[in-house]
Amino acid sequence: MFFSKMTLDREAAISGRFRDLVTGPYQVHEVIWDLFADHPDRKRDFLYRAELTGRDPVVYLLSARKPVYEGNVWNILSKPFHPVLQKDDLLNFRIRVNPVVTKTEPDPDRKRIRHRHDVIMDAKRRLNEANSSFSMSDLVQQESVRWLRQRSEKGGFSLYEDRVIAGGYRKMQFSQGRKKNTISISVVDCDGVLRVTDPDLFLQMICNGLGPAKGFGCGLMMVKRAAL
């Protein structure tokens, strides 16, 4: 595996060429795919997280292959990724997630259809139906931590829930493909502290990503050593 950091070339930043290439989430998706498109039938074997709204745009990548780039907009620095972890290691983490769950529901034709539901919007709807007051920031925090907790055991980790901060909830909408189908993805940024409970499962989760929408910048968990 390789961990890479993409930073904007100084000249591209000054000239504005970057903004011409990256006009929305789907364009970012295409830019990243092009780094690994050595074969038309190639399946995704990378994760990424893009931070493009600040003064210094950056993209983080975790991939099975080293990215190949021949343009003049980005500078890419890659290094091998072979972390050595043990049970009970403490790690700071950062992750952008698409907090959804899949539910099976009947349709009018009595068929059972699987739908993905945004857990935050689901919780908001239930509270509104019950005429309960709530803070949106508290709701995002509560439901995002719950979503992470539900995936922690299979992911080989446990959360220090009082040290997890979830925020930046938003919806990304964009058109995809020739038919310009509209796609909507909700995302939340989570930062906190975790304990490794199963190193093998944890590394598998790191390499495969956590949750859906991995092809659109979600699921990459970045970690570093922590101390309580």
Q: Describe the main β-sheet briefly.
A: 5 strands, antiparallel
As a whole number of angstroms, the C-alpha radius of gyration is 19 Å
Overall average residue pLDDT? 87
- Which stretches of 5+ consecutive residues score pLDDT under 50? none
The total number of structural domains is: 2
Head-to-tail CA distance between termini = 29 Å
The count of DSSP E runs of length 2 or more, i.e. the number of strands, is 11
Instruction: Output the CATH homologous superfamily of the largest domain.
Output: Crispr-associated protein, domain 2
- Please, how many helices? 6
Tell the overall outline.
globular
Structural class per helix/strand content?
alpha+beta
**Helix proportion range:** 25-40%
User: Strand share of the residues?
Assistant: 35-45%
Organism: Methanospirillum hungatei JF-1 (strain ATCC 27890 / DSM 864 / NBRC 100397 / JF-1)
Protein name: CRISPR-associated protein, Cse3 family
InterPro entries: CRISPR-assoc_prot_Cse3
What can you see in these coordinates?
This protein is α+β, with helices and mostly antiparallel strands and 228 residues long. It has 6 helices and 11 strands. The strands form 3 sheets. Strands 5, 8, 9, 10 and 11 form a 5-stranded antiparallel beta sheet that branches. Strands 2-3-1-4 form a 4-stranded antiparallel beta sheet. Helix 4 (119-129) packs across helix 5 (136-152). The model has no long low-confidence stretch (mean pLDDT 87).
